[in-house]
Amino acid sequence: MSFLLEFARDPMTVGAIAPSGSALAEVATAALPRTGAPVVVELGPGTGAFTGVIQQRLAGRGRHVAVEVNARFARRLAALHPAVDVAIADATDLTAVLLKRRLDRADVIISGLPWVAFAETDQRNVLSAVVDSLAPDGVFTTFAYVHTRWAPPARRLLRSLREGFDEVLISRTVWANLPPALVYYCRRPRWSSCLQ
After folding, report:
1. In 3D, which of 167, 176, 173, 157 has the Cα closest to residue 111?
2. How far apart are alpha carbons 97 and 139 in whole angstroms?
3. CA 170 to each of CA 27, 121, 131, 177, 182: distance values in angstroms, whole numbers, following the listed order
4. For residue 62, what are the CA distances in angstroms to 58, 137, 169, 194?
């Protein structure tokens, strides 16, 4: 119920009436490395649909930083997942969030942001922050709802992803999610100037 309430308060930052499901969380977090101590950043974790799966996959390894603009969601997330470093910040401030934590780059960035609700400049600013904050061999994952995939903001997002990364792979449709979704896996970031 709190997710629906937050959507009603600010639909442009929450972007959905319900959190993502476990099936989508499994697909969106599949790029997490099974070994090592990766720096994992989660953008727009909301109520933590992906957070628990990330924590399970990390199993105490590395660092997990969650960047959430909604203070109520952030406080709840921090209480539910004390091992996660929760930053109340806008995704465009990702570089500053990492610097404050003395982290140079992220190995994996997983986004739950409502891209279709963003204006073009907001999309580009967030993607620039992602590209600038991702390690050269890092992976960025984000998702799109199947029913909005052909809307102008969704097409613009895919075009920007292809400009900002050398490789963009698209997952199978996750029919078990409500609504059905697919995941973009983006590798080998280019300079953010490509997104200007």
Report:
1. 157
2. 18
3. 11, 24, 18, 16, 7
4. 7, 16, 25, 30
Burial class (CB in 10 A: 0-12, 13-18, 19+), 161: buried
d(CA 196, CA 163) in angstroms, rounded, equals 10
The answer to whether the Cα torsion of 8, 15, 18, 178 is positive or negative is positive
Q: pLDDT digit of tens for each residue in the chain (196 aa)?
A: 443 443 444 444 434 434 568 999 999 999 999 999 999 999 999 999 999 999 999 999 999 999 999 999 999 999 999 999 999 999 999 999 999 999 999 999 999 999 988 999 999 999 999 999 999 999 999 999 999 888 899 999 999 999 999 999 999 999 999 899 999 999 999 876 556 5
**pTM (global) more than 0.85:** yes
Q: And the tokens for 151?
A: 């809307």
Give yes or no for a contact between 67 and 94, defined as CB atoms under 8 angstroms apart.
yes
Inter-residue contact 147 to 179 (CB < 8 Å): yes
